[in-house]
Amino acid sequence: MHIDRVLLKISGEALMGEKPYGLDPAMVDRVADEIKSVHELGVEVCLVIGGGNIFRGISAAANGMERSTGDYMGMLATVMNAMAMQSALEAKGIQTRVQSALPISAVCEPYIRRRAVRHMEKKRIVIFAAGTGNPYFTTDTAAALRASEMGCKALLKATKVDGVYDADPETHPNAKRFDELTYLDVLSKDLKVMDAPAISLARENGIPILIFSIHKTGAFAEVVNGRGRFTIIREED
Length: 237
Fold this sequence. Notes:
Layout lengths: L4 E6 L14 H15 L4 E6 L7 H6 L4 H25 L4 E5 L8 E2 L2 H9 L3 E5 L9 H12 L3 E6 L4 E2 L11 E2 L1 E2 L1 H6 L7 H9 L4 E5 L5 H6 L6 E3 L4
Helix pairs in contact: 1-3, 5-7
């Protein structure tokens, strides 16, 4: 599988580093290095970053806030993360554009599909912020949606672990790791990789999902080249 255009999904929590919340500049810089190494291979890259390091709509809803309000606040958190990543990438000499599903014209472009594609053709990195722009949808679903719209060959999800397990390997040392799964395996086994709408969207559009660890230096470039440790989710051959 030759990958010439990918979407990288990073959770907001991945950018916290060792901090309890917020952004760890050293971690943001390290992720930017990972992205730069893939960009230098000639691969067109776009990103979706979560907002859980700053605000989680669903946990706010559990504390009595209206779910829609909480989700919109979470979307604004993803814009902050996108701007931090843009700053880190541009410091490394990589042209970057942030496109937000919620129009915030003072700091970023509105999401326009054709413009985003054009940026990528010009070898700019595009960071999609504010999820889908709608409450009740996660940034995982936004990642699958943008990967479909951009015609990406793969959706790579950077997590804390090196693939998909049947339980949390940090709390279950005997958890089983999978090298390969089908979309239906993920849905039927209720594996907490991405939510069901994201998996379904990737399946409908034939986009393989590759899960790898963001904590291993060079892992993003390895996975794009089909090497290293990762779990791939796709249809059965």
